[in-house]
Amino acid sequence: MAAKKVTPVKKAAPAKKAAPAKKVAPVKKAAPAKKVAPVKKAAPVKKAAPVKKAAPVKKAAPVKKAAPV
Fold first, then answer.
1. Cα dist. 21→1, 24, 26 in Å?
2. What is the residue range of 44's domain?
3. 3 lies in some domain
4. Which one, out of 11, 56, 65, 67, has a CA that is 20 to 30 A from the CA of 41?
5. Successive 10-residue mean pLDDT values, the chain, 69 residues
6. Residue 1 forms part of a structural domain
């Protein structure tokens, strides 16, 4: 029954409605960080990703087929 006594905490839940945190969310709209995201476009590191193509290690994956163990 003690658990029911703790239920009054839900009454204090209205704090979520007053969650001014959401009002502060507009900061995300001003998140100039997204403007800095263009750095990802300049991420030539992705161009170097062709190393994955050279990953013949995946071809050696047939070891899983031999996993009839």
1. 34, 5, 9
2. 25-64
3. no
4. 56
5. 51 49 49 49 48 49 55
6. no
